[in-house]
Write a structure and sequence with these properties.
The structure holds two protein chains of two kinds.
Chain A lengths: L3 E6 L9 H12 L5 E7 L4 H6 L4 E9 L7 E4 L19 H10 L7 E6 L12 H6 L3 H10 L9
Parallel strand pairs in A: 1-2, 1-3, 3-5
Antiparallel strand pairs in A: 4-5
Chain B lengths: L5 E5 L10 E7 L2 E8 L8 H4 L7 H5 L7 H16 L5 H31 L5 H7 L1 H22 L8 E2 L2 E2 L5 H13 L1 H14 L11 E6 L10 E4 L4 E2 L5 H4 L19 E2 L2 H8 L5 H9 L12 H26 L13 E9 L2 E9 L5 E7 L1 H20 L4 H14 L11 E2 L5
Parallel strand pairs in B: 6-9
Antiparallel strand pairs in B: 1-2, 2-3, 4-5, 6-7, 7-8, 10-11, 11-12
The chains are: A alpha/beta, B alpha+beta.
Chain lengths: 158, 433
């Protein structure tokens, strides 16, 4: 296991909802670091928590609606986002923040996590990304490299 | 009469996958309306494999569901192999049987530990349990992690398998890796028993509701059918999976976007309890002993006991997986490269996934391009049974306070462990500042 994990999540069959999976496919070809595992997690449910264990730093790439323009990227920590602090909603294949919340609350050791959220343009049955979102993927290697090389991971935590 | 007026309108009930609503109206002790509603927008994933080649179809279908991705992969591979007359080796068969166990263990442990136990312990979620019962939660986490690692080894991933391909495996586990997995599985037995002890202590809290129905599952003569078998029913009848349409009889209802199914009665049940009722004699000895200890006796007509049946299947899965690994190691891992030549044909296949029978049916042209597809998921097979259970249950508990009725109905739905949709889970982000 490598100290850094770049994890793409989402449903590959639902257009831009699967941007995290498309991102890992691109990063495997273009992002070369010996200390990074690039993981296509799909819809991992609670199994995501076990992918985080033992890491020094984790990036999670997911489709995120923050009222931006299609293809816009926001990088943020889980604790920067408003979120209902409970697991009442489905945790069976839950949305990302609930899964992370459950992990923290049941006492799992969590590494510093950056979520790379990409604003969708279209979420419907398709294995293709919309053009704006596809174009946005070109920026990912530089964004991730900058975060790692700036050493910001050492001061991040929940 | 106290409690005889009910106005229940539960939207998006919690701790199930996807969206389901419960609506109950009763006045002066008379029930006017009981509905299990599935309002999810329908998905048309079958259309996405039309025009796709035979060697990618299973990768696409594995993305339908994050919980049952191994099952969708296996049902897809088996249907493709049936359509093209592809035979698999004994080694591939054994490794696929391990893959099925890995998925069942992943899903069952998740359902029992994270979703069902909170009901039995009177809390809203697993989070309070982490404070009140930290060791039990850690035990569940350990078991879940082991099941995930088992999937990683056999399938190449925790979800959405990569190593499973038509005719065999793209990459095989080594004998050393299988030896290590076996040791880990053997050391997990105390954890399984610890969860069983907890469930046994809490099982009196399961509602004592029974309604006899038709239980349908795969069955085979040689083992507790999970990977393969004929369709079979507790009402009698056994037919090959190719006859599945006369067993599912899909139909639509006004209150649901999901299709319902039925066979001889108004409804049928699939899943762990159905499998137990059909095939309990083929469970491992330890699993049979655990069933007895937990008070699970066939035929069991209490749907709430589905969670207990899942726990029995967990014990079976760990023990049977060790036997399968022993069998593989005895013969030694052989390098096998599938040599598949696509051809035209039609094939259907089924696998028992955590929630019941998953059926895939494909037609291919001479170039190995899929021209027709059908996929019937187990949760849809259970919807009509949930509806009829609710109709039977509400009059029996109508005098209880509304909150108790609501909880009993929610627990009923959760007992079926429904997986209504695995389509979209994107983040809705609102920054704190």
């Amino acid at each position: 296991m490598k100290p850094i994990a770049i994890i793409g999540v989402g449903n590959f069959l639902m257009g831009d909802e699967g941007v995290g999976i498309h991102a890992t496919q691109k990063l495997r070809k273009e992002f070369k670091r010996d200390d990074c595992d690039i993981i296509d997690a799909g819809v991992p449910s609670m199994a995501l928590l076990h992918m985080l264990e033992g890491r020094r730093l984790v990036f999670i790439i997911d489709c995120a609606d923050f009222d931006g323009a299609a293809g816009e990227i926001e990088v943020f920590r889980p604790d920067e986002v408003k979120h209902e602090q409970n697991a009442e909603i489905s945790i069976h294949a839950s949305e990302l923040l609930t899964t992370l919340d459950v992990g923290l609350k049941i006492g799992m050791e969590m590494p510093p996590i950056w979520i790379i959220g990409i604003q969708p343009g279209s979420i419907e049955e398709s294995m293709e990304l919309s053009e704006d979102v596809k174009d946005a993927l070109a920026d990912l290697p530089e964004i991730i490299e900058n975060f790692i090389s700036s050493g910001t991971d050492s001061v991040l935590n929940h | 009469m106290s409690g005889a007026n009910l106005n229940i309108d539960l939207h998006y009930i919690t701790r199930v996958e996807g969206h389901g609503n419960i609506v109950v109206n009763a006045k002066d002790g008379k029930v006017d309306k009981v509905e299990w509603q599935v309002p999810e927008a329908p998905r048309f994933f079958e259309a996405m494999v039309i025009g796709q080649k035979w060697d990618v179809v299973h990768h696409i279908t594995s993305r339908i569901c994050g919980i049952c991705s191994i099952g969708h992969t296996l049902a897809s591979l088996k249907a493709t192999e049936a359509a093209m007359g592809i035979k698999i080796s004994e080694q591939t068969l054994d490794l696929r049987r391990l893959a099925v166990h890995a998925e069942n263990l992943q899903s069952h442990v998740l359902h029992i530990g994270y979703l069902a136990l909170p009901d039995l312990m009177g809390v809203g979620s697993v989070i309070p349990l982490a404070s009140s019962h930290p060791e039990e939660v850690k035990t569940v986490v350990r078991l879940h992690r082991l099941a995930n690692e088992m999937s990683d080894l056999i399938c190449g991933r925790t979800t959405h398998p990569q190593r499973l391909i038509p005719g065999g495996f793209a990459k095989l586990p080594t004998e050393e890796e299988l030896e290590n997995l076996k040791k880990r599985l053997l050391t997990a037995e105390p954890d399984v028993m610890a969860v069983a002890k907890l469930v046994k202590a809490l099982s009196p809290k399961l509602p004592a509701f029974t309604r006899e129905t038709e239980y349908v599952g795969l069955t085979c003569d040689s083992e507790y059918a999970l990977y393969d078998g004929d369709l079979a029913s507790t009402d009698g009848g056994r037919e090959p999976v190719s006859k599945y349409l006369s067993w599912t009889n899909e139909y639509c209802v006004p209150q649901s976007t999901a299709k319902y199914t039925k066979r001889k009665r108004g409804s049928l049940m699939v899943g762990a309890l159905a499998r137990f009722n059909l095939n309990h004699a083929k469970l491992t000895k330890k699993a049979q002993a655990l069933a007895k200890d937990l008070g699970l006796v066939a035929p069991c007509y209490n749907p709430y006991m589905n969670t207990v049946a899942q726990l029995v299947e967990v014990a079976h899965g760990f023990e049977d997986a060790v036997s399968i690994i022993d069998s593989i190691l005895k013969k030694g891992i052989k390098d096998e490269t599938p040599n598949v030549k696509p051809k035209a044909g039609k094939g259907s296949a089924a696998v028992e996934v955590p929630r019941g029978i998953l059926i895939h049916d494909y037609t291919y042209d001479g170039n190995g391009v899929c021209t027709k597809a059908n996929c019937i998921i187990p949760t849809n097979q259970n919807h009509s049974n949930i509806q009829l259970d609710m109709e039977a249950l509400v009059p029996r508990i109508i005098a209880k306070p509304q909150k108790e009725v609501e909880l009993a109905l929610e627990m009923l739905v959760r007992a079926y462990d429904p997986c209504i949709s695995c389509s979209t889970h994107y983040l809705k982000v609102e920054f704190k500042k």
